[in-house]
Amino acid sequence: MCYGTSSNVMTDIATPQTDNGDRALATTSVALLIPAYQPGPALIDVVKSLIDAGFAAIVVVDDGSGPDYAPVFGQVSSGKGVTIIRHAVNLGKGAALKTGMNFALVEHDGLSGIVTADADGQHHPEDIRRVARRFAEKPEALVLGSRAFAGHVPFRSRLGNSITQSVMRVVVGQRLSDTQTGLRAIPRGLAERMLSVPASGYEFELEMLIAAKHLGFEVFEEPIRTIYETGNPTSHFEPLRDSMRIYFVLLRFGFISMLTAGLDNLLFYVFFHVSGTIALSLFGARVIALTFNYAAVRRTVFLSREQHRIVFPRYLLLAVANVFLSYAMISFLAGVLFMGVMAAKISVESCLFIANFAIQRDFVFARRSPTARR
Question: For 328-341, what is each residue's pLDDT tens digit?
Answer without folding.
Answer: 999 999 988 889 99
